[in-house]
Write a structure and sequence with these properties.
about 350 residues; alpha/beta; 6-stranded parallel β-sheet; 6-stranded mixed β-sheet; 14 strands; about 40% helix; about 20% strand
Length: about 350
């Protein structure tokens, strides 16, 4: 068995010690100093391992006395998992949250839910609240994951406390954390390739760049253009941040549509695609007759207009379910390390693309 860190290895060894020596509830474990000497690890590593085992209910600590084996029969069966997403009631998030909640409920856990509105200030408050509640684990969608995050210290504090973290949709580059995500690079590549296979050679794009999903989808778009010899024209590629979408569309998308600089668009998600459809219709054009549009996520929005959007299917509830399962397996000690899960991209074909001769 391989371990990503020394404290994960030490957790495994302490669990093995309890089992091999048939230690009973209340039996005292070796001291921190003894663990340091026996396994040649730092005091920080020992404390992190013990904190995690305490959080999992395997051991308990008494100030000044040491660490002891817990009585699993007296543990509260209703444990609590914190869930922090950028939004709650908007777009695909209700489906993701339902997937998480259904799985947690079936496994005997309650859920405490909050959102960040995609701001680092609200993310800070959300994490601090979860620390105060002493949750057993956290499922987190990073806030503006493409940028450096000033809350990194808080995340490291969570790890030191032994609160396990599973990230969804993306992760911070600065933190070694497992994640459950869609393969966004492949998704951007696949929808661009699909347009190319339908005969499109002038392809514009609209991508969000303050999260990893958007940057990966943009990277996939660029890679497909390069591989198939399609000119990458930066004038036809619009990038935006959370707060600037409508301004970017107003300033540039109208001109691209009016001048018919492209025959097809790759959109970051269905919300963006719907905004684009409205701009196209405002100028008296049709989809897919005048412009083809592909998107990502296959949300409810993708089928709410007269044009149903071809695009990548986001796993939504399945992603939430997978994140919950992997986190709980770790919390309950069924695995010594959480592994990441990457969902493959899959195109759902609808009626927003025209095949060109």
């Amino acid at each position: 068995m391989t371990f990503k860190s020394k404290h994960e290895f030490l957790q495994h060894e302490i669990r093995k010690l309890i089992k091999d020596k048939d230690l009973k509830p209340g039996d005292r474990l070796p001291s921190e100093h003894e663990f340091q000497a026996q396994y040649n690890v730092s005091r920080h590593t020992v404390r992190t391992a013990l904190n995690r085992l305490e959080n999992q209910g395997i051991i308990y600590k008494e100030q000044g006395s040491g660490s002891f084996v817990s009585d699993s029969t007296k543990q509260n069966l209703q444990k609590e998992i914190g869930v922090i997403t950028t939004y709650i009631s908007d777009y695909i998030f209700p489906s993701i949250i339902r997937g998480i909640e259904k799985e947690l409920t079936e496994l005997g856990y309650s859920m405490i839910l909050t959102s960040t509105n995609n701001t680092v200030e609200m993310e800070k408050r959300a994490i601090e609240m979860m620390v105060q509640r002493k949750v057993d684990g956290l499922i987190i969608e990073p806030t503006k994951s493409a940028y450096y995050n000033p809350n990194i210290g808080l995340y490291l504090h969570l790890k030191e406390m032994g609160i396990p973290i599973m990230m969804i949709n993306a992760k911070y580059d600065e933190i070694d954390s497992p994640m459950v995500v869609l393969d966004d690079f492949q998704a951007g590549y696949d929808v661009t390739k699909y347009l190319i296979e339908q005969g499109h050679t002038r392809i514009g794009g609209i991508f969000k760049v303050d999260d990893r999903q958007g940057k990966e989808r943009l990277r996939g778009y660029i890679q497909a253009c390069y591989e198939f010899g399609i000119e990458y024209n930066s004038k036809n590629v619009l990038i935006y941040e959370t707060e600037t979408l409508l301004k970017v569309l107003q300033d540039r998308a109208h001109d691209i549509v009016k001048q018919k600089n492209v025959t097809g668009f790759v959109c970051y998600n269905d919300k963006v695609a719907i905004e684009l459809l409205n701009i196209i219709w405002q100028h008296g054009f049709s989809v897919p007759e005048d412009f083809s549009v592909v998107s990502h996520d296959n949300s409810n929005l993708s089928s709410m207009t007269k044009v149903h959007l071809t695009g990548i299917d986001h796993p939504k509830s399945e992603l939430g379910k997978e994140a919950a399962q992997r986190l709980i397996a770790f919390v309950e000690g069924k695995t010594d390390a959480m592994e990441s899960k990457v969902f493959k991209s899959q195109i759902i074909q609808k009626n927003s693309v025209k095949k060109l001769d």
